[in-house]
Structure formats: structure tokens, C-alpha cells
Write a structure and sequence with these properties.
Layout lengths: L5 H25 L1 H8 L3 H29 L1 H18 L6 H15 L2 H12 L2 H31 L7 H7 L3 H24 L11 H13 L8 H5 L2 H22 L1 H9 L10 H23 L4 H15 L12 H29 L5 H28 L8 H17 L5 H20 L13
Helix pairs in contact: 1-4, 1-6, 1-7, 1-9, 3-4, 3-5, 3-17, 4-5, 4-6, 4-9, 6-7, 6-17, 7-9, 7-14, 7-16, 12-16, 12-17, 12-19, 14-15, 14-16, 15-16, 15-19, 17-18
């Protein structure tokens, strides 16, 4: 059976994988107040758990790109989904901070791989003029997943299970609500695997692709680089990779903050309870719109005759101009004005991220795209770790418990910085978020990213 527009069906499955990825990721963040109370976890321990996830995420990024390049998009993606789904299900049985940290570490090892796999799928199935939009669409899956999570997991966590379910009682006891949420959201990944394994093949090997679409993809194949996969030495010598890594290290912490901490910020600053935190759908909707708009607009510029690289950078400039709105958020007295300003900055942050990711796909030869994308994305999780440490110090004040190894290591490197912001609340972080994107754009421009020839091959 032939599918018209098969590449969009493929993209739909990648979109759903991103939804599941973020539902499994966000379950902890949405239920954090309840879980922290049940497990006796303070904010610094919460930050340590987040950082174990991000540490594994960083390690997995460095490995998963090579795995995707070696195993192929189909097999690599299936491996990652199975791994993170099992890790999420295992979270239902945690008993304390250490077991929670272990499960989040395992989750991070699996979840990072979907992004280099998704970028490789886009490079295999989409011509250059459609790639930014395709990246925007599957990234919107992450924001849709984040927006849906409160509506899925809060009812699961607060719903009283029917009487006569001794299996759940024996497994989970009185804390069954949030534990069931982890169990059921993890199971969803195995349902996703069925259509993925049935449908996905490389375009050259697919029996379901139409001749017209095959010709369209073959045209872009002709423009793809030839040669063998880069060695690690070649990857590390590729200067644009380091510029893009720094760009993500500086700017991705903004999006991580809204995922990991913003619900807690609303609870602290605006007195929202667990059920009221469903209002965060506004933020994730803005992120999804930003993902689409960023990809659509740069694609429009490409169709108008601009080079892909120039188009991405123009959109990123507009995003950097919007980010200083972050400074105004802590001063908002009402929830409505807080959400409006936050939505604007999240919109800009995601439109920026889409175009930064598209630059990687534009300029890296396809045979090594997974590897380079992974190294660039590792900067994202390193920036997220630093953000967690800073924000935890800002909101917690002096530590009252011995820190974990991540906390102690970060303090040994950045002790004076942590001391300077300790106990000052969220304000300094909102100021930092106003400046990070403009700074990253200056570094990209000064480093000459705009002079790099798209699709060049160093093999």
C-alpha cells in the first residue's frame, strides 16, 4: 500500500514520540510538590535529581548520535523509546531520593537519543526548504507533551483508585496515585512502537513511498554529501560544531527552567496549588506555536531566495530581541500578566531553538549528522545542569544537608557565584534569561557561523 506524503506520516510518528518523551519527563516536574512531600525531598535534593537526569542526558547525547548513525534511524529510535519507557515505569517503585535519582538517570540515558534520531529522520525524508518546518513540528510534540502532562498525570495522581485492587495496594501502598501515573505513562511507549516498526524504512527501501515523493527526496539526496562517516577527530575539529554547542549551552537553560522550575515558581510567587498548575498549558502552547512559527518563517525566507543559514540567523535575531521581556516577569503582580510575558519569551526561546537545530541539519553532512547533532546537544544539558544549581541556590539559601557529588563538584568550581546569588529568589535568573540569547547570537556571529558553507564535507 502506497502512502501519499509518506514523509509527513513519518514526521507524525516522530511528533508522537516527542509527545511521549516529554510526558514521561514532565511527570516528575508536575507532581513535584506531592512527590517531594512523600519522599522527604527538599529543593536541593530535587535539583540533584534533575541534574542526574541531565548528566545522563549529556552522556547519552555523546553516545546516541553514533548509535543512530550506526544502527539507523529505525532501530536506534526503537531502542531509545523502549529504554526510557522501562525507566519511567520503574519510577513507580522508588522509595527515596537515591532510587528516584537512579530512575531519572536511566530515563535520561534513553530520552536524549530521540533528538539526534529525529534530526536524522528529517535529513533522510525532507528537502532543505522543508527541514526547519519539520523540525518545528516534531519539536512541537515536546511542547504538546509538556502541555498535556498536567491534564494526564494530575488526575491520575489525585484519583482515588477503586476498592478491591490489592495488586496496586501491595505494590504502592497509600502513595499509589503518583506511582500509577509513572507506570501508565511508561506503558504508552510500547504502543507507539507498533506503527513505527511497521512504517519506518529509509526512503530508498520503503515499499510505501509514491514515485513522486521518491523523486523529491532523491533530488535532495543528490545535494547530500558523499564520503564516509567522520572520525571523532574530524567531528571535534569541525569549528561550527563548537559555536553551535556554545549557543545551546547558553540558551537552552531558559527552556529547561520553564520545564523544571516554573510550576514551582507559580506555586511560590502566586500561591497556585497542585490542581491549579494546569495553567502551565499556556506556556507550553506558546512554546509549540514558537516551534512552528520559527520553522515556518525561516522556511518562507528560504523559498524567497535567502540561503538556509541566513534565514535561520534572521529569525534568531528577532528572537534575541524579544528575550529581554524576561526582566519584567518577576515584577508582575497578577497571574495574567505573568503568563502573557512568559508566553512571549517562551515563544521566542523555542523559535530560536528550532532554527539553531536547523543550522546543524543544514551544514553537517548526512553521514555524520547524528554524531555532530549529539555533541552540539550535549551543550544543552550542561547548561541545564548549571541552571539547576544556580536556581536551587537562589531559592533555597544556605544548605542544611550535605550536598550530593554533583552539588559539591559544582560548588568547588563556582562557589563564589553560588554564594553571591544564594537566597535571592528567582529574580536574578529572570535577569540572566534576558541576556543569554543576545549573548549567544553575538558569539555565533563573531565566530563566523554565517560564513560556513552549507553542506560542506570534510571527509
Amino acid at each position: 500500500m502506497k502512502f501519499r506524503g509518506l514523509r509527513w506520516w513519518i514526521l507524525g510518528l516522530v511528533f508522537l514520540a516527542a509527545v511521549l518523551n516529554y510526558v514521561d519527563r514532565q511527570t516528575l516536574f508536575v507532581l513535584a510538590p506531592t512527590i517531594q512531600r512523600d519522599l522527604g525531598m527538599d529543593d536541593r535534593e530535587y535539583a540533584d535529581v534533575l541534574n542526574l537526569f541531565l548528566l545522563a542526558y549529556t552522556v547519552a547525547y555523546l553516545i546516541s548520535g553514533k548509535l543512530v548513525d550506526r544502527l539507523g534511524t529505525r532501530g536506534g529510535t526503537a531502542l531509545f523509546v523502549v529504554w526510557w519507557s522501562l525507566a519511567n515505569m520503574a519510577t513507580a517503585w522508588v522509595q527515596g531520593v537515591r532510587s528516584m535519582g537512579s530512575c531519572r538517570f536511566l530515563l535520561g540515558l534513553g530520552e536524549a537519543g530521540i533528538w539526534p534520531a529525529a534530526s536524522k529522520a528529517v535529513s533522510e525524508w525532507f528537502p532543505p526548504r522543508e527541514r526547519a518546518l519539520a523540525i518545528g513540528l516534531y519539536t512541537m510534540g515536546a511542547t504538546v507533551g509538556a502541555a498535556l502532562t498536567p491534564y494526564v498525570v494530575i488526575p491520575l495522581a489525585t484519583h482515588e483508585l477503586p476498592k478491591g485492587l490489592p495488586l496496586f495496594d501491595s505494590w504502592f501502598g497509600s502513595q499509589s496515585g503518583w506511582r500509577v501515573a509513572f507506570l501508565l505513562t511508561g506503558l504508552a511507549g510500547f504502543l507507539w512502537l507498533i506503527p513505527w516498526l511497521l512504517l519506518y524504512r529509509h526512503p530508498r527501501h520503503s515499499k510505501r513511498i509514491t514515485p513522486e515523493e521518491s523523486a523529491l527526496i532523491a533530488e535532495s539526496e543528490e545535494m547530500a554529501s558523499t564520503g564516509g562517516a567522520w572520525s571523532w577527530r574530524q567531528v571535534l575539529a569541525f569549528r561550527p560544531m563548537w559555536l553551535l554547542l556554545v549557543g545551546r549551552l547558553l540558551t537552552d537553560p531558559v527552556w529547561y527552567f520553564y520545564q523544571f522550575w516554573f510550576a514551582k515558581y507559580l506555586g511560590t510567587q502566586h500561591g497556585l496549588d497542585q490542581r491549579s498548575l494546569t495553567v502551565t498549558w499556556v506556556i507550553y502552547t506558546a512554546a509549540g506555536i514558537g516551534s512552528l512559527a520559527g520553522g515556518w518563517f525561516s522556511g518562507l525566507l528560504v523559498k524567497g531566495g535567502k540561503s538556509p543559514l541566513s534565514s535561520r540567523l534572521r529569525v534568531m535575531l528577532g528572537c534575541a530581541i524579544l528575550m529581554p521581556l524576561s526582566i519584567l516577569i518577576p515584577g508582575c503582580g497578577g497571574l495574567s500578566s505573568t503568563m502573557i510575558l512568559t508566553a512571549c519569551t517562551v515563544f521566542a526561546s523555542l523559535a530560536w531553538l528550532i532554527n539553531l537545530s536547523a543550522i546543524v541539519v543544514d551544514i553537517v553532512p548526512r553521514h555524520s549528522l547524528g554524531t555532530v547533532f549529539s555533541v552540539v546537544a550535549a551543550g544543552s544539558s550542561l547548561g541545564g545542569i548549571a541552571m539547576n544549581m544556580l536556581v536551587a541556590a537562589m531559592v533555597s539559601g544556605p544548605p542544611v544537608k550535605a550536598g550530593g557529588f554533583l552539588d559539591q563538584g559544582f560548588r568547588s568550581l563556582f562557589g563564589p557565584l553560588l554564594t553571591s546569588v544564594q537566597g535571592q529568589g528567582y529574580g536574578p535568573w529572570f535577569l540572566a534569561m534576558a541576556l543569554l540569547h543576545p549573548l549567544a547570537l553575538i558569539i555565533l556571529k563573531a565566530g563566523g557561523i554565517q560564513r560556513h558553507r552549507a553542506g560542506c564535507d570534510r571527509s
